[in-house]
Fold Ribose transport system ATP-binding protein.
Amino acid sequence: MVGELADALVVEGIAKAYGATVALERVDLSLRAGEVHALLGENGAGKSTLVKILSGVVRPDAGRMTLAGAAFAPHALLDSRAAGVATAFQELSLLPNLTVAENLMMPRMPRGALGLASARATRAAARDILARYGLSRIDAAEKVGALALAERQRLEIVRAMEHASKVLVLDEPTAALAEVEWLFGLVRRVTARGVAVLYISHRLAEVRALCARATVLRNGRSIATVDLSGASDADIFEMMVGRRVRGERAVRARPAADAPAVIALDRLSGGSLREVSLTLGKGEVLGIAALEGQGQRDLFRILAGLARPSGGTIRIDGAATSLRNPRAALKAGGGLAYVPEERKTEGILSSLTAAGNITLPVAGRIARGGLIWKGLEQGAARRVSGHVDLAERYLGFPVGDLSGGNQQKALLARTLLTGARTLLLFDPTRGVDVGTKQSIYAAIRRFADDGGSVLFYSSELPEVIDLADRCLVLYGGRVFAEFAGDELEEHRLVGALVGHAAGPGKEGADAARGAAR
C-alpha cells in the first residue's frame, strides 16, 4: 500500500458554532494514506459539520488542517476537489434536473470545436466513467431525478471517487444500497493507490469489514481514536452515547394468529411488483426483506396512494379499496400513514420548524381565522414528540437544521399525529445512529402493542429480525418466502433474498429466478 504510515490529512482542534449552538467544540483526527478510517457518532455529534468543513462548504471558527503536510483551508467545494479531497454526501448533492452525464462531468464539460460544451462529448466521457465503475446499465442521457435512490447513491459515490486523489469522504454511502460488495471493491481499489478514505456509517459490521481504526465523536468533540480489533461494539456504543446501550431483543406479546386483517392484498401488481398476496393483522409488525429493486418500493408507494396498481385487489379492513392518493390512503379503514425512504425530498419541509412539520396533517385543526397559532402548533407537536423521544427544545428549530435522526423522529411523530392505525415505514432507520434507532424501535413496538399495525421494509436484516412478528421476502417482484418466530434467522433470510436455500421449494425458487430475469 502506498505511503501506509504517512499522514494524508491531519485535523487539529477544529471548532464551529452557529450562534449559541456549538456544532464542533474540539475535533482532532488524522488519516493515513491508503487507510480506511471510520468516523463514528450519534446523529448530532458533529459528523456532518466536520464533513462540510473538509469539503469546503463550511469554514471552521478555530483549528487547523493539513493535507499531505501542507496547510489545507478550502473556501468552497471546488477548492477541496482541486486539492484532491472529494466527498460523497449522505444527502445527495446531484442535480435532479440535469442528466447523468452533466452531473458527472460538471463543472468542466468537454467542449467542441467552437469552445462550447458538447453534449455528445459529455455523454461519451460519462459512459467511459460509468463503464469503469461497473455502471454501464445507467443511461448517461437520463435525468438524474428519474433514477432510483440506489442508483443516485452510486452516482454520488462515483463522482467523488473521480475527484479524490488524496482523501475520499464517504458519508453513509450504503444507506440506500442493499448490497455493499460493489462499493467495498471500489474502496479497496482507491486505497491501493494511496488515497485515504474517511468512512462514516452507523453499520458497525461494515465498519469492521473495511476499517482498522475509528474516531468517535460525541457532542462535538473527538472522544477517542481506537483500534477496532480491540474495541467491542458495546465499547463503541458507550463512547458514542456516553452510556451502555442495551443490545438484547425486546420481547413483546405476539398478535393472535386469527387477528383480523387490516390489509389484505390479492395478486397485487404494479411497477416491478408481480401478483403479491399478503395480509397484515391487527397489532402485527410485518417486515419486508428484499435486495434492491425487487418490488418493495412499488408495494409501499401503491399502499400509500402514490402509485396506481396495474392489477389485483386491495382490501382495507375487509373492504375493497382504491387508494388514489395519500389522502385516500389516510381515510381508508383506520387510516394508512406513510414514512418515505427519502426524508429530505419526500418527507420534510426544511424551512418549517419541527413542530410545523409534525402538525401538517392537522393544520386545519390548529388554525384560527386562517392562521396557524404557534401555541396550538407547539401543543399538538408536544403530544407526540415524547412518543418518539424527540426533545421539546427542537420543536422550534427549522427541521432542516436538525440532525438526520431528529428529522426522522419528526416524520414518525407526524404519522402518529394523523391518528392512522396502520403505519407504512420504508427503511425507517436509514442513516440514523444507534440511539435514534432504539427510540424508533420503541415507538413501533408501543404502537403495535396498542393495537396498531405496522408494515415496514428495512435494508438491515438484524432490524427485521429484531422488530418483525413475521417477515416476507420479496424476490423477482413476488413473495418468495415467509418466516415467523424461531424461523426469523439471518442465514435463512440471506438464502431467500437470493432466491434459494430457505425459499418455498424448488418450483417456487425456479419461478422466482425466472421472474427476476
